[in-house]
Automatic annotation (TrEMBL):
InterPro entries: ADH-like_C, ADH_N_2, ER, GroES-like_sf, MDR_fam, NAD(P)-bd_dom_sf
Keywords: Oxidoreductase
Keyword Oxidoreductase attached: yes
Gene3D superfamilies: Medium-chain alcohol dehydrogenases, catalytic domain, NAD(P)-binding Rossmann-like Domain
Annotated region described as Disordered, given as residue ranges: 1-18
Record's protein name: NADPH-dependent curcumin reductase CurA
The UniProt record lists the keyword Oxidoreductase: yes
Lineage: Bacteria, Bacillati, Actinomycetota, Actinomycetes, Micrococcales
Domain Enoyl reductase (ER): 14-329
Source organism (scientific name): Paeniglutamicibacter psychrophenolicus
CDD domains with a match to the protein in the record: PGDH (cd05288)
Lineage: superkingdom: Bacteria
Length: 331
């Protein structure tokens, strides 16, 4: 199997030198194990945090450790009951061409016609579920809410915008970093308004897009986006703090938000969360999302980069915003 490991820890933006590629000879399968030829690997922003030697919600990668994370593939050998040759499986063994281990590390998934297997890492998996939990459980979205979502054209954000609409939001506003993404938000994902945060200050553009204020903020970005949201919140506003990608590769402390006092005066609730601690809604999510995909009420995009040798490139491009929707590596 060919695998990609963390070679050194980055300061600021990672570079290809922080990774190393190795080929390993896999041992024969032990009883109860399966071997999987991977078809897609996931690259995710949280992996940047794991490259630091700092405790976060996910443990740091050890130096020399494979870049673990979500992957999907086909079972090519099985010595486990309940997992057969040819089964498609989801697992978290990360950036390698072939994965093997005890059956418990693999979840068999059903192939759905017209939906790529990679969807189990995106619209039917962790990123869309993160959107679902954030809106429904953390921000307690209610019918009639005006919702603002940053990072809106990414995997989590594009799911969040559509879920908010389908769960009764009165108006959904999104921000993203290119005009093409802004057009997609309005034309494909059904956002009522959208803006390019690189065009003008976020606050100015958010005020124009939300003249009646916002009730829910779904934060993927932090920094100036969170500061702007705090300024336009209506009374009893609620925010789900999902991520703050604007600071992941920063070497200096981010400025702001400087208006945290609005939490008090407006009675706001901002609640952070990591999806792994909120498994309870998963059955509801699968039911809702499968029906929405089936009816065409939810659509999704993926940005697919070919080749394990391009996994590092894909990961860096993800953080630069080259992706629309979920970024995946196709082997
Ligand atoms: P995305 O698909 O959204 O990809 C990342 C996007 O971030 C890029 O496409 C880019 O889009 C945007 N971006 C990069 N830098 C900046 C910046 N300085 N300001 C604004 N936007 C920026 O990734 P995911 O959907 O996987 O993740 C989205 C967020 O959700 C991340 O913050 C992630 O850490 C978080 N997350 C949290 C989880 C949790 O449990 N709390 C679980 C999963 C994800 P653009 O062109 O628009 O700039």
């Amino acid at each position: 199997s060919t695998e990609i490991r963390l070679a050194s820890r980055p300061t600021g933006w990672p570079t290809p030198e922080n990774f190393e590629t190795a080929t390993v000879q896999l041992p024969d399968l032990a009883e109860g194990e399966v071997r999987v030829s991977n078809e897609y690997l996931s690259v995710d922003p949280y992996m940047r945090g794991r490259m630091n030697d700092a405790k976060s919600y996910a443990a740091p990668y050890a130096l020399g450790e494979v870049m673990t994370g979500a992957a999907v593939g086909e079972v090519v050998e099985s010595r486990a009951k309940g997992i057969a040759l040819g089964d498609k499986v989801l697992h978290h063994l990360g950036w390698r061409s072939v994965s093997q281990g005890p059956a418990a590390a693999f979840r068999v998934v059903q192939e759905i016609s017209g939906v790529p297997l990679s969807a189990y890492m995106g619209i039917l998996g962790m990123t869309a579920y993160t959107a679902y939990v954030g809106l429904l459980e953390i921000a307690r979205l209610k019918e009639g809410d005006i919702v603002f979502i940053s990072g809106a054209a990414g995997a989590v954000g594009s799911a969040a915008g559509q879920i908010a609409r389908l769960k009764g939001a009165a108006r959904v506003i999104g921000s993203a970093g290119t005009d093409k993404k802004v057009a997609l938000l309005k034309d494909k994902y059904g956002f009522d308004a959208a803006f390019n945060y690189k065009d003008a200050p976020v606050l100015e553009q958010l005020r124009a897009a939300a003249p009646e204020g916002i009730d829910v903020y779904f934060d993927n970005v932090g920094g100036d986006h969170l500061e702007a949201a705090l300024s336009v919140f209506n009374r009893d506003g609620r925010a789900a703090l999902c991520g703050s990608i604007s600071s992941y590769n920063a070497t200096e402390a981010p400025a702001g938000p400087r208006n945290m006092g609005n939490l008090i005066t407006q009675g706001l609730s901002l609640k952070g969360y990591t999806v792994g601690f909120h498994p309870g809604l998963f059955p509801d999510f699968v039911k809702d999302m499968s029906a929405w995909l089936d009816s065409g009420e939810v659509v999704f995009e993926e940005t697919v980069i070919e080749g394990l040798e391009n996994a590092v490139h894909g990961f860096l491009e993800l953080m630069r915003g080259a992706n629309t929707g979920k970024m995946v590596i196709k082997l």
